[in-house]
Amino acid sequence: MTSSSPPIPTESVPTVHETFPNKEETHLDHTRHNYKFSTHGVTRIFTTDSHVHIGEQSFERQEFNRAFEGYLNPGYSPAPSRKFANPVPVGVAGFSLTLFVLSLLNLGARGGPNPAALAGLMWFYAGAIELLSGMWCIVIEATWAGTLLSSFGGFWIGYGCIVVDVFGLAEAYDGYDLTQLLGMWILAWAIFSTMMWAMTFKSTWPLFILMGAVVFCLLTLSIAQFVSVNHATAAKGLTRAGGVFGIIASVMGWYVTYEGICSKENAYWVPPVLLMPGAVTSLED
Fold it and tell me: pTM of this prediction?
């Protein structure tokens, strides 16, 4: 909140009972103002380039961020106190590109070669760079984004070690035990992703779809590992399904990356923010 701000324009505003009788809450867009109607009356919301005026209260415009997938921000929150570039796009880009290529292999593209060839992507682009991106999200006080990106940075580093057998798992376990171990490992990540997905139900549609696709991708791949020995045909179908969900997640991840970078100054098309029903858009919601 700030003590000095541009003067609030004055005008006569009818009460809620005069304008919308018996209406508990609604919103009316005006060319210069937004009005929030509630049982307590009408609150005028007037915005300028630098401030947001809510009734008789005045706030600096940059003090608040609504849900926006370009920052992996799942809800209305205070803006960061530190001024840094947005670290989200590079982290999401690394995740999306690596998942896209891995999903093509899961779909059987070009014969589905050994994913060990992707170790470089997993360790460095989706691993180290995504981990660093998550740490910078912590610096700019974006807890949800920092938790998500840092965790999946660790996921990719770990998975890269598994596919090239850095720890000798293939020698330590027989075929059945190894598939069960991998199934449990991927299932744990599916549970974590479900928890993070649950926090996007009041955010934006792209972020909700992205996390939902990640959840189902991991879940189907986990089940595929569990049944791979005794039900090879079913496992192949589940792996392909995981590839489809992975492609969807990759495309949505690139969409989020684009939104986090684009502006009216560098792009002809700036996507609108598609808020979900129930998304918090003001301090009074």
Answer: 0.74
